[in-house]
Amino acid sequence: MYEPIRTKSVHSMADADFPHRSREEELDIQLAGHLSALLAVTEELGLDTAAECVAGQIARLRGTPPARRPGVTTGADPAELHRRALALAGRALVVAASRADTAAAIISAERMDAHTAALQELADLPGQRLIGAL
User: Cα–Cα–Cα angle for 73, 132, 34, nearest 5°?
Assistant: First the structure.
């Protein structure tokens, strides 16, 4: 009377052979990416001690030390680099908090504080005016 279904339904679950990453693995990858971008900006600013701390966190997350290019500069405005580093540190802090990674969260928060202070110092220099600064 009824013919049996011979093909798989499009609504069936994906094959179990397909590799899936856990949420923690995805957050590790995302955090390492944000920290890598922060490392590049930190090195461009010439902040060697801070760069070593960030590189240590990346190595912990990835299991290998990050590729580095110390001394490479683009000639970008220091205030713009500090703004970029502040934004990257903020993103890293959000992901670190999400995965409950205290060490990465502390480093990110310290970098945010340092770049905020640097921006404030640049704003106090004569001839420098930051957007949104009073």
Answer: 45
